[in-house]
């Protein structure tokens, strides 16, 4: 998680760095432009600014955050496919409004769960389709090769049988042909069963891998309090005094 410094915070809220350093100092928090700023220090500064402008209880603290992550899933040919996931968050705190804060936290948690579930569903579906297509291509290629070999052997046997002068040789050749055809049919059946088994196994393994990766991402996302400390930014909303600009 990237630390928020005084300098980056000043840029985010469009305030000169020197002014923000002075505001922290006035709030009793000595800072330099490269010092990190914690969430507690942000709240302390906000309270100080509220008191300074006579806005106790009315100022708002708006925190914005955008996170990106990549979910890698196995693809064809041993290569990985990447699914980009982006979660955007914006939270506005009204001082003393604990119920609003809780409601926002729940909404963000729900949005995160939905994004995670959607990413997992898409990854599993994509992996399943790719596995099915690959297995289907392999099965079709194998069936074509076997059919071509069978036709070639049959043609050779037919030519051989035609050249035999006796009925005994013809019957033997026909019997041998029938045997080979039966063997070829059995081989084709076994090949189709093996292809179907590989398809089902590949789809299962890919789905399990996608689910595992999604669960790992879920474990990383389930740390909202730690991430909030580094990625939120402060803005202040100060109404103009009566009669002012």
From TrEMBL:
Q: Which Gene3D superfamilies match?
A: Putative DNA-binding domain, N-terminal subdomain of bacterial translation initiation factor IF2
Q: Which ranges are annotated Basic and acidic residues under compositional bias?
A: 110-160, 168-222
Per the database record, which ranges form the Translation initiation factor IF-2 N-terminal domain? Answer: 1-52
Outline the extent of the Initiation factor 2 associated domain. Answer: 60-95
GO terms of molecular function: translation initiation factor activity
Q: Where is the composition biased (Polar residues)?
A: 234-245
Keywords associated with the record: Initiation factor, Protein biosynthesis
Pfam families (alphabetical): IF2_assoc, IF2_N
User: Which residue stretches belong to region Disordered?
Assistant: 93-245
**Keyword Cytoplasm included in the entry's annotation:** no
**Name of the protein in its database record:** Translation initiation factor IF-2
Q: In which organism is this protein found?
A: Enterobacter agglomerans (Erwinia herbicola)
